[in-house]
Specification:
The chain has helices at residues 19-27, 48-54, 71-83, 96-109, 114-123; strands spanning 4-6, 11-14, 32-35, 58-61, 88-91. It is α/β, with parallel strands linked by helices and 135 residues long. Strands 1-2-5-3-4 form a 5-stranded mixed sheet, with helices on both faces. Helix 2 links the parallel strand 3 and strand 4. Helix 4 runs antiparallel to helix 5 (114-123). The termini are far apart.
């Protein structure tokens, strides 16, 4: 699967996935998919939820624009990642949002504050046009 990269045993990230990759995810034992794409994005696949559910996987959709990531929507994504059965694929169109969210999620699970995780993501260039977070 060319668009999917395994981060750890529980989480993988990817860009837009196609139906063949969905089947391969199911065959490899994935249990869920979290889609961060907005329906108004070019290339959004309207049938993705149904395709995933037909394969027996759990699906969640939390549209997240990279320029609008803030602590509140990051926490919503983190909560959904925590709730979904593992292993989980988190995807967007190019994997940038997915990797930003997954790295921040892992950092907070390892004891980093949300503010520190955001700073690390900014330093890595993962949060374009990020507005300074209010404490």
């Amino acid at each position: 699967m060319h668009t999917i990269k395994k981060i750890n045993n529980d989480l993988s990230i990817g860009g837009q996935i196609d139906p063949e990759e969905l089947k391969q995810l199911a065959d490899e034992g994935y249990k869920s998919v979290l889609n961060l794409r907005s329906p108004d994005e070019q290339g959004f696949q309207d049938s993705e939820e149904l395709d995933i559910q037909l394969l027996g996987l759990q699906y969640a959709h939390l549209p997240t624009k990279i320029t609008e990531i803030n602590p509140q929507n990051a926490l919503q994504v983190f909560q959904k990642i925590t709730e979904l059965p593992k292993p989980t694929l988190i995807h967007c169109d190019s994997a940038v949002r997915a990797i930003a969210m997954v790295l921040m999620y892992i950092a907070t699970k390892q004891g980093m504050s949300l503010e520190e995780a955001f700073k690390q993501a900014e330093n890595l260039g993962l949060l374009e046009n990020f507005v300074n977070m209010k404490s």
